[in-house]
């Protein structure tokens, strides 16, 4: 049974696998999704290795568990080529990281990954098993497990096994690539975060499909239970849809809902640009760490023009305050013009926000990143650039860890431990 009976832009036919048949043709948004997943995993491994070596140069092992809860059959067709699906992307990136991160190292860094691939359809897991076997992977239940069944029935066992293998770190990435919007029960995502605090969840969510089909029917009311929406929420969302805020307002409501139910502190709620069907698909990254959020948003900037969101990139873009009339809200697309406009807006609005933060006591760069992470499309490096500009303009000073004010004229880079303070002296060019 489908989690919801509608047919989405991601037509269900494009996700059917059978070992005796060719894999399905890939659609553009699935390609975009896999591209971001690949780029994200690459950066995740790089960062993990840097952190591990910075903490302890002698530690040689790096553990990570990767869970693909809606794994599909493993490959797609792209014209007459065969493309890897998400399980192969995960396996391929772990392998690539082993080679890349060990280049030129005498003491090898062991990248110790465990993979869980789950799909409810037997013909899909059969296809996946075949694909893995053809590529020389051994599905022995030690490194790679393929499970046929519902994600919701298997997740508890997976969490337990991750905690047994990694009692302290519990480092894991869950990809929950559902078709539609109601297959993933959001309280299960909350459960993942409560048991594995360093876990990250990447969730697809057909938000536009939900918006288009909003109705106060018993069927719809039942369908939205997994995402914790009630009849009165549906009523409000229908009002929004028909009112001024329109689609943008609904997106923000849903975003807040997802964050509050899952208790993820950080998210990147960007949409894969709709294809001909004009139905945008949300690719939402949820985590409890601002750095994880920053790594994901960097990938959106690197792979420009595939993702979008209402707003102009500055503060409020992802909040409520900019919404008046969705017809007039520009779409943010991670392009050059978007970046220029975002910077201009941040230069205007950051001083007031920083003043609020630093007026009582100095605030570290790290803390500033945490506070603003969810409010803008800016990477931490973009925020730092704006702060540097404000310091150069004499609006703030930077206190180094030695307790001395850093010279405005020589300041080119901020450290996470630097502190932002209100200027002690008025800025007189050439004085510092
Ligand atoms: C969008 S496809 C996955 C595509 C795959 N992630 C990729 O990119 O290669 C969604 C898959 O989820 C499976 N599925 C749907 N509901 C499920 C559930 N509750 N538990 C596990 N699998 C489910 C479907 O059978 C389908 O194969």
Question: Key terms for this structure?
Answer:
432 residues; alpha/beta; Arc Repressor Mutant, subunit A; 3-stranded antiparallel beta sheet; 14 strands; globular; binds S-adenosylmethionine
Structural features, described:
By secondary structure, the protein is α/β, with parallel strands linked by helices. The protein has two domains: 12-334, 3-Layer(aba) Sandwich (Rossmann fold), CATH 3.40.50; 337-421, Arc Repressor Mutant, subunit A. The protein has helices spanning 28-55, 86-102, 122-134, 151-165, 186-195, 207-213, 218-223, 231-242, 246-262, 290-302, 336-358, 365-372, 380-392, and strands spanning 61-68, 75-78, 81-84, 110-119, 144-148, 172-176, 200-205, 266-272, 281-287, 307-310, 331-332, 363-364, 397-399, 419-421. A nine-stranded mixed beta sheet has the order 5-4-1-6-7-9-8-10-11, sandwiched between helices. Strands 12-14-13 form a three-stranded antiparallel beta sheet. Strand 2 (75-78) and strand 3 (81-84) form a beta hairpin. Residues 319-325 have low confidence and may be disordered. It binds S-adenosylmethionine. S-adenosylmethionine (SAM) binds at residues 3, 15, 30, 34, 70-72, 85-86, 118-121, 124, 150-152, 177, 179, 183. S-adenosylmethionine binds at residues 3, 15, 30, 34, 70-72, 85-86, 118-121, 124, 150-152, 177, 179, 183.
